[in-house]
Amino acid sequence: MPATPTTPAKQALSHLRVLDLTRVLAGPWCAQNLADLGADVIKIERPGAGDDTRHWGPPYLRDAEGRDTSEAAYYLAANRNKRSVTLDIASAEGQQIIRELARQSDVVLENYKVGQLKKYGLDYESLKREKPDLIYCSVTGFGQDGPYAQRAGYDFIIQGMGGFMSITGERDDQPGGGPQKAGVAISDLMTGMYATIAVMAALTHRDRTGEGQYIDMALLDVQVAMLANMNTNYLASGQAPKRWGNAHPNIVPYQTFATSDGYIIVAVGNDGQYRRFVEAGGRPDLHQDERFAANPMRVRHRDTLVPLLAEMVKTKTKQEWIDALEAAGVPCGPINDLDEVFDNPQVQARGLRVDLPHPSGGTVRLVGSPMKMSATPPRCDAPPPTLGQHTEQVLRDMLGYSEQQIGELRGKGTI
Prior knowledge:
Elements: E1 17-21, H1 26-36, E2 40-45, E3 60-62, E4 68-72, H2 73-76, E5 82-86, H3 92-103, E6 107-110, H4 124-130, E7 135-140, H5 155-161, H6 186-209, E8 213-218, H7 219-225, H8 228-237, E9 254-258, E10 263-267, H9 271-280, H10 285-288, H11 295-300, H12 302-313, H13 318-328, E11 332-334, H14 338-343, H15 345-349, E12 353-357, E13 363-367, H16 391-397, H17 403-412
Parallel strand pairs: 1-2, 1-6, 2-5, 6-7, 7-8
Antiparallel strand pairs: 3-4, 9-10, 10-11, 12-13
Helix pairs in contact: 1-6, 6-7, 9-13
């Protein structure tokens, strides 16, 4: 069963306000992390259009009668626990409202093109004059300087440029070989995660010193940094790593295999595990053969061994193999589709699915935060807002605008 949404009595960031001028994924992912931890996140969106991802469907959220709403599932993934305010920041009135909101905020997040907000007087230096201890985080494809600073950054392109696709995909000498992107926008998501960490560090520094600061986050920087040991392998050896698909360059067998009804992962880490693997498959001879008895020999003869193992694995179902290998102490696991993921008892026990009522009248199904904290657990009590859902509330309650002023702004198309 899906987890029941709860509102913890206290959250780590409930004393903070974030003014979110970002859209699509990297910036909103950072803002959602902060919102999950209790921050009041005010999402600024274009009147009449909103975040680009609101229109990136189908699929769309369905209302109580099962009809599609205007809320794309892509948008729902990155915008829970926020408030939505529609505002035309190209107008003088809109710029003034941003300045007023910034004065009451701790953090500003933005992902406009380099220099675009400066012409509106909404860049860091301008807003710093309004609030000297402001934390201001910019997210771009390539950063605020360097020869590529003016280029637009797209996750897919960054995965290629940053080296990720050079080590991801089937081996070039195998059928289907060649570069592959990840199944989700990893450079966007990881940039959102790094931005979250940077914002938290800047807030800690501010709390100690009273000093705000500027944060310059770039997708390309993050994509290069996150290659981890592949980077150091290259820097140590001077040899660029190659693609190995679902295999491992140094361990055999450490890869996927097709069973009679699906796929499994077998991650043999030593010779004893290998022996138990082939014994579970009724092929002890594949351990007794001196070509395969020890890992260095298996790596050397992988092209001979792997087809024999593949033939062996096809004789049982996915579940039969998992049961047999778990009993034998051989590391293994299924390759689940999302039906199987959300039906998994461990996923259910961890409360990763959360169902919330939505203003459309339907129910929005979300994935809750994976951060488990004993004293200040993340919240998941507010569905992603509809476009402009909180505009009047924020203008009236935070900034003291009258109903007449709000009506005039709406008449001008500012909100």
